[in-house]
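A student in our group prepared the protein record below, which I am reviewing. What it holds is a sequence and that sequence's fold in token form. My question to you is simply how this chain folds and whether the tokens agree. Do not assume that whoever made the record got everything right. I have pasted the whole thing underneath without changing anything:
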Amino acid sequence: KKVNGKKAYDLSRKGIEVELKPKKINISKFEITGFEDNKLSFVIACSKGTYIRSIAHDLGKNLNSGGHLSVLRREQIGDFSLKNSFTVEEWIEKIDNSDVPIIESN
């Protein structure tokens, strides 16, 4: 999102607070997965353009606390999911066990 032609997160990193206009989003899943040492863990499924950092900030604000992210991991985007992904080692094994000829360049 931009504010006066500048990226909001760039301004935020410089310590400049900006007021972002509310935007309609869709949250289809919000599951609390843990709470330990004043740290809340959750899984969220949401529409494109949702700022998870803003969700954390607003959640903390509504709890009269404070909220920020210490970890953010995207597990799915569109049809692509970590559940359907492979490690580098798994890819190498698939390639090594493939019948497809490998072309080497000089």
